UniProtKB/TrEMBL annotation, chain A:
Transmembrane regions: 6-24, 36-55, 85-108, 115-133, 139-156, 168-186, 206-225, 245-264, 276-295, 302-322, 342-364, 385-414, 420-439, 465-482
Residue stretches making up the NADH:ubiquinone oxidoreductase chain 4 N-terminal domain: 65-123
Any one GO molecular function term: NADH dehydrogenase activity
Name recorded for this polypeptide: NADH-quinone oxidoreductase subunit M
Record's GO cellular component terms: membrane
UniProtKB/TrEMBL annotation, chain B:
Lineage: unclassified sequences, metagenomes, ecological metagenomes
Membrane topology classification: Multi-pass membrane protein
Protein name (Swiss-Prot/TrEMBL): NADH-quinone oxidoreductase subunit L
Source species: wastewater metagenome
EC class: oxidoreductase
GO MF term list: NADH dehydrogenase (ubiquinone) activity; NADH dehydrogenase activity
Keywords on record: Membrane, Oxidoreductase, Transmembrane, Transmembrane helix
Main location (coarse class): membrane
Length: 504, 671
């Protein structure tokens, strides 16, 4: 049906232009701007489903490719395409944006049209990041992403938003400057800015190490990995709910995506040499951050730390593959299993963390507090909400049957083949994640009605029910039957594994 | 056949969804009809399945339903393995579940009183309860019918989830929400080991499918792996890791601490989840994995020791409990220890058989206790009971049956299963199985303890002085029929099931290929030839057994202390003073877990957060850098003119330097 359509371009420019249109609706037509924003985001989401429908899952090749010259002098192209890794992430982006638009419906009173416009522009840019195959184009989208998020936190954020935005901006900006240098260097070597041309250059190991570290500076901040993670809890705490959702569901994934698209295939030798570093940082994320999450007294901070710990599984899966390849496992190597687990974890975390932040948002909208101590016995006043919150908490704790289980289970199985202790430390998440998530649930949801504020709470309305219900279905569907997603990703990931392994 | 199995599993799931989502619209009667109907379907079809397996009309079934995930090197298919072991579990689970469903109508009838006024969670709590126990039945069936480790783990954690939800059902009670968090976390500690066990199996046996794993394992006996710097048998590592999971789920020392607290949940689920079915999942799992466990005598010995400790020492704690449900909870711990001991002696069939008989009589005891609790207006302290016999005859007689079965009275079901365990472990000890000697003494002396705490409960509740307040006494009456009928229906198998199933299940070939025992380990086969000559002679055989006389002694002592000469009791208490103190502190395990591990985790978390994140990274590195820059900036502030073109000029110069460096000298920098 969409044969020959520039679907990716539409997915990028429709929301950006739509966002500008929403911006121009003006102050007084708030209701109209909401409807317009919703319509645009829904159209974009439906259009992105065309990617899924038209996707050939048997191949690792780029699909929906669009390629024309952009800046001829430097050989920079407008080069777009998606494979099994980026396609699900694009859909996750369009899906999350719809949720965010609905979630801000009657909550955002201050300049709603600007708020919605920021998210729509953000959506287009993020789709651009995932589908850009030209290094400069990628970099432009990558940096552009900071602007709407900066505005979202800076304008609609909490009291300490200036500190948070500056920290967020500086952290991520410093990292990405180094990436730009690496990209320019690579283009000199490859004679083109096309990212696929960067693969298989056979660079000198010492240079690979430099490039790897430059990429690491950019991606580690985004994931974020310990010890460059401290911007995330601050950003989340100050961000409005929608900002937190996009931050957790999509922006963190861009770091993980970077490792898959750049670090592993472009610098495979350096990846082997530095895998000890990456694995250590990943395991620190799981254990250290898991312990830190337990003692948080602010719900958003707790979930932010939980995000970092969960993303540890993503980087662990990516960089454990070299040691897995050398293992004596009977099943044949679990290399693809590790990559697959990490990739599934990214998608799953997109749903679960979004849901968790939305749940906190529901409470925040009513009581204007994120402090755990200000709640207690919420289930007595909001039974329907409590049901959702407990369900998502279980998904966050990795309960089988929810999406949270799938990726972690695969990564633990695979990591075991690399080293018993990798799996041992990673598996501590079973206890830690249950600990920090359910202890929060105990203090917030259960117990007697704690104060008058809680006593006056009203259960979720239809709009909130819709958002949480859709997310609940997604979380369950992915947990009960991950095969459709696995199938889409598998050829690309095993192709990637071949590239990386062949270079070593 | 596959459709039948699907229906068995899906009926309670659909029931749970319908009663959960539309409970309010269905109303109470509609909801319990749906829920009970769903379980009744499962139960009936489970019986059909069992009889199919028994008559030989149906072969063991092993087939996939759908592909969960297929990745290079790992294919996981959700499917069913239905053989005689599964069929027996299915019948036990669905039958007890059905009884509990019916009983719940009576027990939860006035649940509104358990909620504070105006609590939204109290609305339709009755329907929600039915939804949960339906969901539990689904999860438990998934667990027992799984044909692969992923699905096993799904069911395993699924029952854990429902247990969590139900222990904390009355979510306004602090003790309940403490207990459910504790239960979930302790079980997660077990699952931590369990997952690593699954990973070991996957790495060395190359699959998660039971049949393939057992096939590969049979061919690679004696394979070793490196761990802690030494060589260990793969089978030993896998079995011990899986065992950690079983120890949490089946509440074995030291992971037992959650079970007594789980009594905070409504009594029907104490019967269903925390006595008859879920807690036996660990026993079932090990029996299912018998082809693996048979390869590791080390793992079996560990099971023997842990089971022995649990059987004897947890029974002792039951002696000092005053809450009627807690006594039965400690009794459950102890009986689970017996089942573990059976598994450790390679008498898997005896373990599973005790699982079955125990499911009936322990569910009966819990439901009986629940009936008492209803009559007592939800008071559970036995010191306020006494003399209930004349008010509640049906409860009295059925509880008596359950108690007699529990202590192993000859010809009752519990006798056949428990005595087989004692004999089997005794035989294993003579054959030199490490740990069997210890376990033997534990289970033998445990018999005496069992008789003590069982009849202590029985006498305190039903005999002696009526110690309740006048108001409660006026309202004492027998429970309604929805409560007493399940009691009677459970009392019947508690008496007779051993009589006609012991022969085939323990000493015949009921399990066939479902349980694998190495020839050299097969103690039950040995017993079949030497000890077993039919149920009557086995019953009479009790007279020459030390276990029987220990039981008699236990009952006699209790009778003297609680009926004949109650005046002796304080003296006995004083004589055992310090021991009583240790028992009342439950050997300090709770303190170890709560103050020790949980406290330690929070302490470390706080240190890492304050010291690491806030102190070192943010304080020194980030903000410190910012401050340093600020100071440097103050020094060079003179260079700041405030004019935009000055800055732009500096930027252009900088860019030019960068570009020159990039284009010209780049290679030279790294060469």
């Amino acid at each position: 049906m969409f044969e020959g359509w520039p679907v990716l371009s539409l997915l990028i420019w429709l929301p950006i232009l739509g966002g500008l249109a929403v911006l121009m609706t003006g102050e007084r037509a708030a209701d109209f701007s909401r409807r317009l924003a919703l319509a645009i985001s829904v159209v974009v989401f439906v259009l992105s489903l065309a990617l899924w429908a038209g996707f050939e899952s048997g191949t690792a090749a780029m699909q929906f490719v669009e390629r024309t010259t952009w800046i001829d002098t430097f050989g920079i192209e407008y080069f777009l395409g998606v494979d099994g890794i980026s396609m699900p992430l694009v859909i996750l982006t369009t899906f999350s944006t719809v949720l965010v638009v609905i979630a801000g419906w009657e909550v955002i009173r201050y300049k709603p049209q600007q708020y919605l416009a920021a998210f729509l522009v953000m959506e287009g840019i993020m789709v651009g990041v995932f589908s850009a195959l030209d290094a400069i184009l990628f970099y432009v989208f990558w940096e552009a992403m900071l602007i709407p998020m900066f505005l979202i936190i800076g304008i609609w954020g909490g009291p300490n938003r200036i500190y948070a935005t500056l920290k967020f901006f500086l952290y991520t900006f410093l990292g990405s400057v180094l990436m730009l240098v690496a990209l320019i260097y690579l283009s000199y070597q490859a004679g083109s800015f096309a990212i696929p041309d960067f693969y298989g250059l056979g660079l000198d190991p010492a240079i690979q190490t430099m490039i790897f570290l430059a990429f690491l500076a950019a991606f580690a901040v985004k994931v974020p990995m310990w010890p460059v993670h401290t911007w995330l809890p601050d950003a989340h705490v100050e961000a409005p709910t929608g900002g937190s959702v996009i931050l957790a569901a999509i922006m963190l994934k861009i770091g993980g995506y970077g490792f898959l698209r750049f670090s592993l295939p472009i610098t495979p030798v350096a990846s082997v040499q530095l895998d000890w570093l990456m694995i250590s940082l990943s395991l620190i994320a799981v254990v250290y951050i898991g312990l830190v999450a337990i003692v948080q007294s602010d719900m958003k901070k707790l979930i932010a730390y939980s995000s970092i710990a969960h993303m540890g599984f993503v980087t662990l899966g990516f960089f454990a593959i070299f040691r897995i390849a050398g293992s004596e496992a009977v099943s044949g190597s679990g290399v693809v299993l590790a990559l697959e687990g990490a990739a599934v974890q990214m998608i799953s975390h997109g749903f679960v963390s979004a849901a968790m932040f939305l749940c906190v948002g529901v409470l925040y909208d009513r009581l204007h507090s994120r402090r755990i101590a200000d709640y207690g016995g919420v289930a007595n006043r909001m039974p329907m909400f409590a049901g959702f919150f407990v369900m998502f908490a279980m998904a966050n704790a990795g309960l089988p049957g929810t999406s949270g289980f799938v990726g972690e289970f695969m990564v633990v199985l695979a990591a075991f083949q690399a080293d018993f202790w990798f799996a041992f430390l990673a598996a501590t998440t079973l206890v830690l994640a249950a600990g920090y998530t359910l202890w929060m649930i105990k203090r917030v949801v259960y117990g007697e009605v704690a104060n008058e504020g809680v006593a006056a709470l009203r259960d979720i309305n239809r709009r909130e029910f819709l958002i949480l219900g859709v997310l609940a279905l997604a979380v369950l569907a992915l947990g009960v039957w991950p095969q459709p997603l696995v199938e889409v990703m598998e050829p690309t990931l095993s192709h990637l594994a071949n590239i990386v392994m062949a270079a070593n | 056949m596959e459709t039948v199995y699907l229906l068995i599993v899906l009926a309670p799931l659909i029931g749970a969804a319908v009663t959960g989502l539309y409970g309010r619209r269905l109303g109470r009667v509609g909801a319990h009809r749906v829920a009970i109907g769903a379980v009744a379907i499962s139960c009936a079809l489970s019986f059909v399945t069992l009889f199919g397996q028994l008559s030989g009309a149906a072969e063991p079934f092993n087939g996939a339903v759908y592909t969960w995930a297929a990745i290079q090197g790992l294919t996981v298919e959700v499917g069913f393995l239905v053989d005689r072991l599964t069929a027996m579990m299915m019948v036990v689970v669905t039958f007890v579940s059905l009884m509990v469903h019916i009983y719940t109508i009576g027990y939860m009838a006035d649940d509104e009183h358990n909620w504070p006024a105006g609590s939204g969670a109290g609305v339709a709590s009755y329907q929600r309860f039915f939804s949960y126990i339906n969901l539990f039945t689904f999860s438990m069936l998934m667990l027992v019918m799984a044909n692969n480790f992923m699905q096993l783990f799904f069911g395993w954690e699924g029952v854990g989830l429902v247990s969590y939800l139900l222990i904390g059902f009355w979510l306004n009670r602090p003790s309940a929400t403490f207990a459910n968090l504790k239960a979930f976390l302790v079980n997660r500690v077990g699952d931590f080991g369990f997952v690593l066990g699954i990973a070991t199996v996957f790495m060395y046996y190359g699959s998660l499918d039971y049949a393939q794993v057992f096939g590969t394992a049979a061919q690679s006996t004696g394979e070793t792996m490196t761990l802690f710097g030494g060589e260990a048998l793969v089978a030993t590592v896998a079995c011990i890791l899986l065992l950690i999971g079983a120890m949490a789920k089946s509440a074995q020392v030291p992971l037992h601490v959650w079970l007594p607290d789980s009594m905070e949940g409504p009594t029907p689920i104490s019967a269903l989840i925390h006595a008859a079915t879920m807690v036996t999942a660990g026993i079932f799992m090990i029996a299912r994995m018998s082809p693996l466990y048979e390869q590791s005598v080390t793992a079996l010995s560990v099971i023997l020791v842990i089971g022995g400790i649990t059987a004897f020492f947890m029974g002792l704690v039951g002696l000092v409990q005053d809450d009627i449900k807690r006594v039965i909870a400690y009794s459950t711990l102890s009986q689970l220890g017996y089942m573990f001991v059976a598994l450790g002696a390679s008498a898997y069939a005896a373990g599973v058989f005790h699982l079955m008989t125990h499911a009936f009589f322990k569910a009966l005891l819990f439901l009986g206790a629940g009936s008492v609790i209803i009559a007592m207006h939800h008071k559970q302290d036995m010191r306020e009971m006494g003399g209930l016999r004349k008010y509640m005859p049906v409860t009295y007689w059925t509880m008596l049956v359950g108690t007699l079965a529990l202590i192993g009275t000859p010809f009752f079901s519990g006798y056949y299963s428990k005595d087989a365990i004692i004999e089997a472990v005794h035989l294993a000890a003579t054959e030199g199985r490490p740990g069997a000697e210890f376990a033997y003494w534990c289970v033998l002396l445990g018999v005496f303890v069992t008789a003590l705490y069982s009849f202590r409960l029985f006498f305190l509740v039903f005999h002696g002085k009526e110690r309740m307040d006048a108001h409660t006494r006026e309202h004492l009456h027998e429970s309604p029929r929805v409560v007493t009928v399940p009691l009677i229906l459970l009392a019947i198998p508690s008496v007779v099931i051993g009589w006609f199933t012991t022969g085939p299940v323990l000493y015949g070939d009921y399990f066939g290929g479902a349980i694998h025992v190495a020839e050299a380990h097969d103690v039950l086969h040995h017993m079949a030839e030497e000890v077993w000559h039919g149920p009557v002679s086995f019953g009479v055989h009790a007279l020459v057994n030390p276990a029987f006389w220990l039981t008699v002694a236990g009952v006699a002592v209790t009778w003297v202390l609680y009926i004949a000469r109650p005046g002796l009791l304080p003296g006995v208490r004083r004589a055992f003073g310090p021991v009583g103190g240790i028992l009342e502190r439950k050997y300090g395990f709770d303190a170890l877990w709560i103050n020790g591990f949980a406290g330690l985790g929070r302490g470390i978390g706080r240190v890492l957060w304050r010291g690491g994140d806030a102190g070192l990274i943010d304080g020194v590195l980030i903000n410190g850098t910012a401050r340093t820059i600020g100071r440097v900036a103050a020094l060079v502030r003179g260079a700041q003119s405030g004019y935009l073109y000055h800055y732009a000029f500096a930027m252009i110069i900088g860019l030019l330097i960068l570009l020159t460096w990039l284009v010209g000298g780049w290679q030279g920098w790294f060469a």
